[in-house]
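USER: Please consider what follows.
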Amino acid sequence: MDKNYDDVRQNLISMLEELDERLTTITQDVRHADENLEKDSEEQATQNENNEVQDYLGNSARVEIAAIKQAIARIDNGDYDICQTCGEVINPERLKVVPYVAQCIKCASLAEKV
């Protein structure tokens, strides 16, 4: 069976570029968050909540970037569709939905329960 994942690889690279841009924007926004807080306590609470959201979004983007880079490496190594936990083939439909997953659905489900 021919396992040519050139289109998937290009899609992952595009996703990576988009996430890098998003992370840059988030990082710039977080730097602005270092500015003085408003004197009004409600405004301070809003600013703090916004900072927490920005931190969460930045961390989520970093995790997704790492997963995409690992998926690209797996394509390059020839084991893109192999579960990194059990070694079984990952369902192609699962890879279509989330092209950077590293586990089959069974192993991912077990990992969530732990």
About this structure: The chain has a mean pLDDT of 88. Residues 74 and 80 are 4 Å apart (CA to CA). The two ends are 35 Å apart (CA to CA). The chain has four helices and no strands.
